[in-house]
């Protein structure tokens, strides 16, 4: 097995977990917290949004490391999708494929079903609800909860913050409600 074949396979938990721990120790050492939701605020502030709203009036240069972190994530995602992608279809339980097909979602070779997550899928009611309305609700929830799922679940919990524990419990309860009660109704549109 060559290096490309090795790194294009899913990494086991005992490799990914310690890497996350190393990142967390590095962030704690430098007095930073992990989270991506503030990147939009930093970007808007850097582009001059502080002229229009006091929310964006802060020293975004102190948070520029976060912008580099997101740029690194986007670059890594591009490299993984372009050169390291596993060509095999996603290994899902056949009952999952049957359930998706019952909602009119065709099997896909990629990670996301193209019938929803594409420009043509966006023009449908189902796609609009999933992408636009869902994106708005995620953004609102992120601001309301004071951070995103990764910020609370990774950084907040590792710092033993009670608000992060409450937020993470809320994320999971909301995810279960969405998955079992709301999503089937949206997908059957």
Task: Give the SSE layout.
Blueprint: H1 3-7, H2 13-29, H3 38-46, H4 64-83, H5 94-102, H6 119-122, H7 125-145, H8 149-158, H9 162-187
Task: Describe the protein's architecture and organization.
The chain is 64% helix and 0% strand. The chain has 189 residues and is mainly α. The protein folds into two domains: 1-85, no CATH class; 90-189, no CATH class. Helix 3 (38-46) packs across helix 4 and helix 8 (149-158) packs antiparallel against helix 9.
The separation of the N and C termini measures 45 Å
- Rg of Cα set: 19 Å
Give a count of the beta strands, DSSP E runs of length 2 or more: 0
Counting DSSP H or I runs of 4 or more residues, the number of helices is 9
Global shape: globular
* Main sheet specs: none
Please give a handful of descriptors for the protein shown.
9 helices, 189 residues, 2 domains, globular
Question: What's this entry about, in short?
Answer:
This protein has helices spanning 3-7, 13-29, 38-46, 64-83, 94-102, 119-122, 125-145, 149-158, 162-187. By secondary structure, it is mainly α.
């Amino acid at each position: 097995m060559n290096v490309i074949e090795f790194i294009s396979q899913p990494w086991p938990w005992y490799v990914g977990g310690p890497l996350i721990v190393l990142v967390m120790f590095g962030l704690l050492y430098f007095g930073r917290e992990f989270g991506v939701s503030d990147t939009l605020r930093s970007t808007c502030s850097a582009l001059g949004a502080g002229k229009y709203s006091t929310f964006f009036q802060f020293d975004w240069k102190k948070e520029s490391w976060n912008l580099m972190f997101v740029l690194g994530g986007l670059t890594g995602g591009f490299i993984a999708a372009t050169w390291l992608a596993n060509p095999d279809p996603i290994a899902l339980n056949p009952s999952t494929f049957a359930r998706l097909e019952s909602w009119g979602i065709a099997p896909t070779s990629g990670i996301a079903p193209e019938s929803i997550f594409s420009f043509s899928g966006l023009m449908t009611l189902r796609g609009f609800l999933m992408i636009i309305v869902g994106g708005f609700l995620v953004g609102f929830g992120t601001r309301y909860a004071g951070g995103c799922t990764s910020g609370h679940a990774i950084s907040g919990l590792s710092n033993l913050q009670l608000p992060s524990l409450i937020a993470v419990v809320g994320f999971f309860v909301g995810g279960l409600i969405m998955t079992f009660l709301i999503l089937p109704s949206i997908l059957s549109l």
